[in-house]
Write a structure and sequence with these properties.
heterodimer, A: mainly beta, 7-stranded mixed β-sheet, 4-stranded antiparallel β-sheet, B: mainly beta, 6-stranded mixed β-sheet, 12 strands, 0% helix
């Protein structure tokens, strides 16, 4: 069964460093998402991406964040200068065309900023 | 603005008991989708069900059932004869069609512990 794959599963980084979280969505999917879950809290929407551009972003997704689909298969989330409060689980999701279809989530990347 | 409320933060039940997880939502859209996701201790998000706003028919899938009531803006989830493997955090989520991107807005989750 096709699945969304995220790497790495856990990343530790020093405050101020740049990190790139990687995702390989399901191959025929067209909509891509990043969500964040701070430990013990709810899952929060960060950004959606369609047709090679951001379609919507939340207040959390400030100038420190960027997304890219560099090669038609990967979908990346970059945090330019990490802060302690960026520590969270980051989920990538994708879905196919049409609003009938649910998003499939990856297993998540746990980011720890020290 | 959209909102999903899961008033039950934590629930504990003894194995084989039935348990209902509550979800109340707010939206101005007339067309929307409601979801339940399970997050086991391993951390991934597992899709359980999607329901659209025009389909109020209740659904049963094995030990799981869902009760969607538009009149009370609720989408409750019942587990019958609970098992230890049901222990997880359960999230209710809302997706509004209007934006086109169908982003998911999650509730704060209910942590279910099934005691053997």
């Amino acid at each position: 069964e096709p699945e969304v794959t995220q790497t790495p599963s856990h990343q530790v980084t020093q405050m101020g460093q740049e990190v790139i979280l990687r995702c390989v969505p399901i191959s025929n999917h067209l909509y891509f998402y990043w969500y964040r879950q701070i430990l013990g809290q709810k899952v929060e929407f960060l950004v959606s991406f369609y047709n090679n551009e951001i379609s919507e972003k939340s207040e959390i997704f400030d100038d420190q964040f960027s997304v890219e689909r560099p090669d038609g298969s990967n979908f990346t989330l970059k945090i330019r200068s990490t802060k302690l409060e960026d520590s969270a689980m980051y989920f990538c999701a994708s879905r196919t065309q049409g609003s009938l279809y649910e998003a499939f989530f990856g297993q998540g990347t746990r980011l720890t900023v020290v | 603005a959209q909102k999903v409320t899961q008033a039950q933060t934590e629930i504990s039940v003894v194995e084989k008991e039935d348990v209902t997880l509550d979800c109340v939502y707010e939206t101005r859209d007339t067309t929307y989708y409601l979801f339940w996701y399970k997050q086991p201790p391993s951390g991934e998000l597992v899709f359980l069900i999607r329901r659209n706003s025009f389909d109020e028919q209740n659904e049963i899938s094995g030990r799981y059932s869902w009760n969607f009531q538009k009149s009370t803006s609720s989408f409750n989830f019942t587990i019958t004869a609970s098992q230890v493997v049901d222990s997880a955090v359960y999230f209710c989520a809302l997706s509004e069609v209007q934006t086109g991107a169908n982003n998911l807005f999650f509730g704060t989750g209910t942590r279910l512990t099934v005691i053997p």
